[in-house]
């Protein structure tokens, strides 16, 4: 075998090994959700078994996981909608105008992205408790803006800059207002970029545990990641149910992540990596 | 008819308020949810106040003195730092290896598969990862110790032994975030111009020479971005570690964010937690400011 072929085989084996490491815990989660409680801890592991859906039924009936998923959906959609509603115009403003302080403002969004969640959480909790807004989805929707807005703004500035200015000038001559141009000319052209930003921000909002379990701990108000934590309270952990819930919680974010996998590097570095 | 001179052309002046109309709402929102609470934290940090116990009482810099002399706070900071200096180099090396292998492999199907799979650990809900870790690292019945047994290695008490537990969350962090480094470096490698790469391949067989003189310069921005963002993500890390063992056993995996949460929401000492928050914030912002202008120097 030539050196090149050997090298190529090495790359292939290494990548296959990496793929295996990545997928194994995920496989373990799905397999455990479909095993009986006894099979989960059987060693050596049972690789072939008849799928058993009782854990899913139990998670739905006993743990109100569907309610939690609905709460997660409300909070995620609300947070992303608000973030795009204020973030897209901001990105447009930064892309199209240079004004006093515009670059400082753009960097200030990054500072927010780097904020340590627990720091804002303390006063936010006190404020929400005072206003009786604990367990209210509004609270989570608002606090998630600390990461949704920077993400949306930074990912969309480039998108808006890529729209040819000539299109906007033509509309301006036709007498359209600046906001009308933004809304009816530029925005529709950047829908793919907005979708990527929205999905990425949505993944973070959906996955959040820290804000959610402090600000929305009630049985009817808790989001899906908080349900994960609730299993720790009991004497015996019902692993089948835990893993069934886990599959239902991670399904949407993994699908969303795969849909935008080409943009993850750019997104998480707020556009620092092209 | 003569052409109008420049002075006669009516140039529509940009109205001063126009950009603010677009940018303003987001700024107001972020001031309210980001800056306003931060100011409050600064205020509480100079007060003695336990949640639910009377009004805050001004106590000067007492909280700061207590924080800086508290071995708990210092050890959480050191632990976070240790966590970072162990996981980051491993993530960088592994991530680079993955990116290079993806760049070199001729198996398009495998490349595509790995590129998609890399997203899975990043997107998976960290609290789910934490529960999964508990299941897989179980001492008697976990699949990890079973794997070790097959290899002839004695079982490790992952969840009970302090050192093993720290190693376990480090491995989990590496599993979660190496893909991020790999994706960032892959994106950087894609910027190496094809013709330069072909030219150098004719010049030298040496992998090292091709890496050092051709690829490394293009990888540099990606490496900087990986280091910066991994540092930030590590300081922020809460969800995964909390759902494994809430910082335990004892305080073996208690990072800075978990420590502050414990003081504030389990000890209800808002004053002390605020002082710790302010100190952590200063470190992060200093870090952010030094690297951000460097990182985004082509932007804005």
Query: How would a crystallographer describe the biggest sheet of chain B?
Result: 2 strands, antiparallel
Share of residues in helices of chain A: over 70%
Given helix and strand content, the structural type of chain B is: mainly alpha
> How would you classify the quaternary structure?
heterodimer
Helix content of chain B: over 70%
Tell me the strand order in the biggest sheet of chain B: 1-2
Runs of chain B in which pLDDT lies below 50 for 5 or more consecutive residues are 5-11
Beta-strand portion of chain A reads: under 5%
- What would you report as the Rg of chain B, rounded to the nearest angstrom? 26 Å
Helices and strands of chain A, in order, run as HHHHHHHHHHHHHHH
Distance between the termini of chain A: 38 Å
Strand tally of chain A, please? 0
The shape of chain A, in one word, is globular
Greatest interface: A-B, 102 and 102 residues
* Rg of chain A: 23 Å
How would you portray this structure in words?
The complex is a heterodimer of chains A (274) and B (300). Chain A is globular and about 70 Å long. Chain A has helices at 3-33, 37-40, 54-62, 65-96, 102-114, 117-130, 137-143, 145-161, 165-173, 178-189, 191-207, 210-215, 224-230, 239-259, 264-268. Helices cover 74% and strands 0% of the residues of chain A. In chain A, 49% of the residues are buried. Chain A has 274 residues and is mostly helical. In chain A, helix 4 (65-96) crosses helix 8 (145-161) and helix 4 (65-96) crosses helix 11 (191-207). Chain B is mainly alpha-helical and 300 residues long. In chain B, strand 1 (47-50) and strand 2 (53-58) form a beta hairpin. In chain B, helix 3 packs antiparallel against helix 10 and helix 8 crosses helix 10 (207-236). The longest helix of chain B is centred in the first third of the chain and has 34 residues, at 71-104.
């Amino acid at each position: 075998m030539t050196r090149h072929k050997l090298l190529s085989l090495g790359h292939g084996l290494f990548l296959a090994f990496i793929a295996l490491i990545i997928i194994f815990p995920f496989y373990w989660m799905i397999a455990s959700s479909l095993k009986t409680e006894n099979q989960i801890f059987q060693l050596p592991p049972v690789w072939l078994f008849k799928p058993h859906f009782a854990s899913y039924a139990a998670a739905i009936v006993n743990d109100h996981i569907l309610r939690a998923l609905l709460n997660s959906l409300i909070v995620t959609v609300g947070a992303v909608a608000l973030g795009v509603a204020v973030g897209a115009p901001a990105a447009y403003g930064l892309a199209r105008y240079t004004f006093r302080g515009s670059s400082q403002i753009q960097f200030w969004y990054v500072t927010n992205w780097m904020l340590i969640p627990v720091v804002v959480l303390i006063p936010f909790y006190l404020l929400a408790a005072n206003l009786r807004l604990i367990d209210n989805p509004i609270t989570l929707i608002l606090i998630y803006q600390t990461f949704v807005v920077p993400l949306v703004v930074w990912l969309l500035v480039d998108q808006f800059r890529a729209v040819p200015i000539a299109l906007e000038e033509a509309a301006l001559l036709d007498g359209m207002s600046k906001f009308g141009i933004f809304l009816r000319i530029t925005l529709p052209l950047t829908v793919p970029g907005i979708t990527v930003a929205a999905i990425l921000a949505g993944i973070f909002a959906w996955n959040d545990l820290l804000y959610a379990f402090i600000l929305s701990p009630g049985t009817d108000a808790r989001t899906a990641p908080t349900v994960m934590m609730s299993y720790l309270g009991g004497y015996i952990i019902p692993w089948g149910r835990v893993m069934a819930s886990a599959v239902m919680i991670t399904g949407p974010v993994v699908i969303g992540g795969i849909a935008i996998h080409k943009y993850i590097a750019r997104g998480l570095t707020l556009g620092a990596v092209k | 008819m003569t052409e109008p001179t420049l002075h006669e052309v009516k140039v529509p002046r940009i109205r001063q308020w126009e950009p603010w109309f677009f940018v303003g709402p987001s700024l107001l929102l972020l001031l309210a949810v980001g800056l306003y609470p931060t100011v409050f934290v600064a205020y509480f940090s100079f007060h003695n106040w336990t949640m639910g116990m009377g009004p805050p009482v001004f106590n000067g810099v007492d909280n700061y003195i207590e924080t800086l002399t508290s071995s708990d706070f210092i050890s959480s900071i050191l632990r976070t730092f240790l966590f970072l200096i162990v996981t980051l180099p491993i993530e960088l090396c592994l991530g680079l290896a993955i990116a290079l292998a993806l760049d070199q492999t001729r198996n398009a199907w495998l490349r595509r598969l790995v590129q998609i799979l890399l997203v899975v650990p990043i997107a998976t809900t960290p609290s789910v990862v934490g529960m999964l870790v508990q299941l897989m690292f179980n001492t008697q019945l976990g699949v990890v110790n079973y794997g070790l047994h097959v290899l002839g290695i004695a079982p490790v008490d992952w969840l009970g032994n302090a050192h093993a537990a720290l190693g376990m969350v480090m491995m989990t962090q590496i599993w979660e975030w190496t893909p991020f480094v790999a994706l960032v470096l892959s994106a950087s490698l894609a910027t190496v111009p094809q013709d330069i790469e072909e030219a150098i391949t004719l010049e030298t067989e040496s992998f090292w020479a091709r890496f050092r003189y051709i690829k490394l310069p293009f990888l540099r921005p990606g490496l900087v971005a990986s280091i910066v963002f991994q540092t930030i993500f590590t300081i922020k890390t809460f969800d995964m570690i909390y759902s494994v063992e809430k910082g335990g056993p004892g305080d073996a995996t208690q990072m800075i964010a978990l420590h502050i949460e414990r003081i504030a929401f389990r000890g209800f000492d808002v004053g002390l937690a605020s002082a710790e928050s302010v100190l952590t914030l200063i470190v992060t912002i200093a870090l952010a400011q030094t690297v951000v202008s460097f990182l985004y120097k082509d932007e804005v």
